[in-house]
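Task 17 of the worksheet. Students: predict the tertiary structure of the chain below and write it out as structure tokens. Keep your answer in the requested format; marks are given for formatting as well as content.
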Amino acid sequence: MIVSAPDAGSPPDVVPDIPNGPVLLACDRAPASSEALCNAGRLAAAAFGGPLQVLGVCEPTPGVAAGMDVLPVPAGLDEARRVAMVDDVQRAIAVAAAGDRSWPVEVVLGSPARTLAAEAARRHASMLVMGIGRHNPLDRLFGTETTLATLRESPVPVLAVGPSFPAMPQHAVVGMDFSAASVQAARLAARLIAPEGRLTLVHVRPRFEHPSTDWQLWDADYGRTLPSLFDQVRAQLDAPDTMLVETVTVRGDPASSLLSYMQQSQAELLAVGTQRHGFLERLVVGSVATRVLRAARRGVLAVPAA
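Model answer:
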């Protein structure tokens, strides 16, 4: 995730192009979240120039154990549930002020996280937009947080929004470790805020310190490299002249520092680049994106490494 290692390296000379495929809006038919989702979907579609497609995922009905046997699911039951969900999703979109009845709606059967990620890849989506998810401790314990699970599977950027996500964000904070993923996160975030908005690039420096002369010399050298690294990132943003692009360096834990800065500055969006991690590391240690997504309430943009 966000790297606060001593040698952050240089921003890549070549970063991925700005995506221009369809925006996939994941809708679970919950009216309470429809307004923010529709706002985010409209925003992403306008930012990247692709059509907006609404996708729902209906989990198949599990078989019921009866003694030594498993009772089969009645034929046609899952298809009937899928069709009913199409109606529910269309209704949720229609009643949302930011929704549009003309948006194509499709519901497929499958595991939500894997299906959403697979469909995003199959459709060459520019972005997957979904609700920020629940924050129930039991939900986290059993690994059923659909948004987090999707983020771990998705090959495309995921924009997760809470109920208060605005139609046009004014301020985005980007966790910057100068990797290709973090640079791309900054570029996409710049597309998702108002042209006259504010984009803050935040680099989290190591929080450990040592009284030795070697450490102090190293730390001073490290600090002197940051302005040129930030300048290189600025050159790759392609942000409008009307946008305020500022840089901030803090010390501390990456996730906590970014969330604290987002809250203090009242930013509506927090963008991070992500890296693939093994199952055990996610289970025991977690990741910056995971911690950010669980704590943030407005909007999180997670951009996977190429």
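Marker's comment: The longest strand covers residues 198-205. The chain is about 40% helix and 20% strand.
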